[in-house]
Amino acid sequence: MAESPVINESPLKIIPLGGLNEIGKNMTVIQYEDDIFVIDSGLAFPEEELLGIDVVIPDITYLKKNLSKIRGIVITHGHEDHIGALPYVLKEINVPVYGTRLTLGLVENKLKEHKLNDIKLVTIVPGQIIKLGVFEVEPIRVCHSIADAVAYAIKTPYGKIVHTGDFKIDFTPIDGQKMDLSRFARLGDEGVLALLADSTNVVREGYTMSESTVGETFEDIFKHAEARIIVASFASNIHRLQQIINAAYLNNRRVAFSGRSMVNVSNVAMELGYLKLPEDIIVDVKDIDRYPENEIVVITTGSQGEPMSALARMANSEHRSMEIVPGDLVILSSSPIPGNEKSVSKIINQLTKKGAKMIYESLADVHVSGHAKQEELKLMHALVRPKYFLPVHGEYVHLDRHKRLAQEMGMNSNNIFILSNGGVLEFTSKTAKIGKSVPAGRVFIDGLGVGDVGNIVLRDRKHLSEDGLIIIVVALSSTTGELVNGPDLISRGFVYVRESEILMDGARKVVDAEINKCLNKNIKDWATLKSSVRDALSQYIYQNTKRSPMILPIFMEV
């Protein structure tokens, strides 16, 4: 009897381009043959060593190569680490963007700033089926620290994939929109091929507290406060803003918004009805001096200690409309994002020096996370019961702990995959395996420049920031090639010349001697001259200072 022929199945691919081994920059590609769609398009904020960089976005080389196959981008929610890269991505890839009403309101605002008016935005609601090529994508309501967040169930040729997005299980959400746990349970009953789940809070035991607990804390603090209240929060945390407004109203205070993103987001949320305001409660921040101090609450950006934020400008006496005065009550209603601890500590110190009373997370329950802790993640795994599991959204320590949590729930470790950005997980009807990686990495945004600052430029910036710069200016005769003027040495960020005259005179003599030595050998090639001068001066300076400033020779013909 002849053997039945083996059919080569096309693989279903899951390709994270961001969000793995890092916090932020979330982007995941789902592909089957000639159909691709993307989940989220986020940015990350730069670490300290990325000098001068404004934001970091995913490398979309793979998407640009497969442009004709992309059916759309679906967004889980409106936080910057999920929508922040959209303006940069959509300049390269003009495809429809799908999201819930508030999410697209925030996206539209962002695209207007970048003058992108020809992008198709498609509003979706939980339970709706979106056809994207061969895929059927269904949004599912979840709770998070922003309204209108969704997970996605994706029907593929080999089974269903569930991507949780960012979530927590909140039984008393501010807007009354509870997470659709029954839909996750039904998906588990139907059978789930793979689960991609948020790992941000997996290292924390227990359950994340309900957002409503923060409202009770605000009411209590506002009731006893006698001075002005300034609350710093994430602009996108609409539920938090609502609770601050509610507490202000109950205590006969008016509310002013400060900070560009706070004003923009609150305007969008008010227009779309996600932020409900009592009559006449909002005042312009410029007009707050017209009211008694015990009748004002200012909601501002800057909870992460960002140097250009409204709160930082208040702390540094640089804010146009207000300044921190002794007795002001400042509440930081967030926890520091990993890496921001120093900045937050610095701003707490600055504000305390100005006489402000400070309340932050370790002193009162003025913040709860928007991410699921261990017990909520266990519930998600128990409901969905996936065959394969891919932890996402977190640094390696989070991904690894999430893998162990899945194993504790009885999952076979061979069915759990920890990928890096650019890694490819391939499925057929019977198998799952790691495929060949695709290009992935970080693209740096500096001002209007996208990707024009690379590792070499950053290395030079680091060098300049640590050791400074010496410029050598030399004038050579265009006819004879002999030294006409100089060498003149200019120091920037290296030493103060007036206090280091002996060092600089010695440096000048070293350069002069090296130029004459080269000219005596009849070396007139400028590249060789510059290299010789740079080496000689570098050696002299290191011997005398144990420092290595950047040396920039400038040769001119006269």
TrEMBL record:
Domain Metallo-beta-lactamase: 24-218
Signal peptide: none
Gene3D superfamilies per UniProt: 3.10.20.580, Metallo-hydrolase/oxidoreductase, Ribonuclease Z/Hydroxyacylglutathione hydrolase-like
Main location class: cytoplasm
Location of this chain's protein in the cell: Cytoplasm
Annotated keywords: Cytoplasm, Endonuclease, Exonuclease, Hydrolase, Metal-binding, Nuclease, RNA-binding, rRNA processing, Zinc
E.C. no: 3.1.-.-
Enzymatic class: hydrolase
InterPro entries: Metallo-B-lactamas, RibonucZ/Hydroxyglut_hydro, RMMBL, RNase_J, RNase_J_2, RNase_J_b_CASP, RNase_J_bac, RNase_J_C
Keyword field contains Protease: no
Sites where the protein binds substrate: 367-371
Function (record text): An RNase that has 5'-3' exonuclease and possibly endonuclease activity. Involved in maturation of rRNA and in some organisms also mRNA maturation and/or decay.
Protein family per UniProt: Belongs to the metallo-beta-lactamase superfamily. RNA-metabolizing metallo-beta-lactamase-like family. Bacterial RNase J subfamily.
Subunit details: Homodimer, may be a subunit of the RNA degradosome.
Protein name: Ribonuclease J
Source species: Fusibacter ferrireducens
Taxonomic lineage: Bacteria, Bacillati, Bacillota, Clostridia, Eubacteriales
